[in-house]
TrEMBL record:
SUPFAM superfamilies: NAD(P)-binding Rossmann-fold domains. The keyword rRNA processing does not apply. It comes from the Bacteria. It comes from Mycolicibacterium rutilum (Mycobacterium rutilum). Belongs to the HIBADH-related family. Signal peptide: none annotated. Residues 4-153 form the 6-phosphogluconate dehydrogenase NADP-binding domain. This is 3-hydroxyisobutyrate dehydrogenase.
Length: 300
């Protein structure tokens, strides 16, 4: 059984360490603040006084700290200890930051697989934990058993930015949905409706979103926006009413105004009769020097 090092002992780093110890892995840990590692040391983890000594102790090094600025700083501190080492990054950040970390580790002579943890700490060590990985498939295949001890993992491709790209896209959906729900509660509240009164109706909206997502995804991928069941023009009117209702309620309408701007731009571009999937084109800035908006997956 390979030895494992975990750099970072925040709530998630401790959950990862606990799962590895439970699975029987010899686990070495390092953390900026030693006191935060005490719980895992009491459970059998081995303390390393520096990132370099921690990396040297392990067959594979997991790093889980707040973001990739800290990831890079910690790995740079480990320096030459990374030559020949394998690092699996499990911190959340942008796709470009993940790619930069991969370059840093490559430059130091190591191998880097980037990961995004999609579920909370209490899932770690159970199949309910979802971890997305990207980078060299050979590294993923080699350390699959270690990842299995943490949860259910999925490898997404060789580009080390790909797991972070999934992470960011899904967090985009999550936080805009949470923001939309909280905004709706404030609009309701301004009209005398209590959150728990609105809730069952809000959950009804959640139920109808799945088929809407499927239709939009298919239409965008096929670049097919005609034969509309939800035309852009009627969405424009509906969102305008929402902006007005929000202002009347004294609730900030900024997010709705931004969406209204995309819808109005689609109408102005002559797409009023098209399906709402057409609105996405107004969100994307054309690449410098290009007259059209192209998606990267259209080239692959
Ligand atoms: P944090 O995001 O707060 O990260 C805490 C860890 O980062 C600690 O080990 C902390 O060290 C370290 N750290 C912060 N700043 C520095 C620094 N300047 N130098 C060295 N180390 C530093 O908490 P989590 O453990 O919850 O999250 C870790 C990562 O996991 C994040 O990227 C997060 O997005 C991701 N994640 C977390 C989930 C969760 O449910 N918690 C779910 C999914 C992903 P110290 O103890 O010394 O402060």
């Amino acid at each position: 059984m390979t030895a494992v090092t975990v750099l970072g002992q925040g709530p998630m780093g401790r959950a990862l360490t606990a799962a590895l110890l439970d699975a029987g892995y010899r686990t070495t840990v390092w953390n900026r603040t030693e006191a935060n590692a005490r719980e895992m040391l009491a459970r059998g983890a081995i303390w390393a006084p520096s990132p370099a000594e921690a990396v040297a102790a392990g067959g594979v090094t997991l790093i889980n700290v707040v973001d990739h600025d800290v990831v890079d700083a910690v790995l740079e501190t480990a320096g030459r200890a990374l030559a020949g080492a394998t690092v699996i990054g499990l911190s959340s950040d942008t796709p470009d930051r993940a790619r930069q970390t991969a370059e840093l580790v490559d430059g130091l002579g190591g191998r880097y697989l980037d990961g995004a943890i999609m579920t909370p700490t209490d899932t770690i060590g159970t199949p309910d934990a979802r971890i997305l990985l990207a980078g060299p498939q050979a590294v993923y295949d080699t350390y699959h058993p270690v990842l299995d001890a943490l949860g259910t993992s999925t490898w997404l491709g060789e580009d080390p930015g790909r797991a972070a790209a999934f992470d960011m896209s899904l967090l985009d959906l999550f936080w805009t949905a949470v923001s939309g729900f909280e905004h709706a509660l404030m609009m309701a509240a301004a009209n005398g409706i209590a959150p728990r009164e609105l809730l069952p109706h809000a959950l009804g909206i959640v139920d109808i979103l799945a088929p809407v997502f499927i239709e939009i995804a298919e239409r965008i991928e096929e670049d097919r926006h005609d034969d509309a069941s939800a035309p852009v023009s009627s969405t424009a009117a509906s969102v305008r009413h929402l902006v007005n209702a929000s202002r009347d309620a004294g609730v900030d309408a900024g997010a709705l105004e931004a969406f209204s701007g995309y819808v109005d731009a689609a109408v102005a571009a002559g797409h009023g009769a098209d399906e709402i999937s057409r609105i996405t084109a107004e969100m994307v800035q054309p690449a410098a020097g290009s007259p059209t908006r192209k998606f990267r997956w259209q080239h692959v």
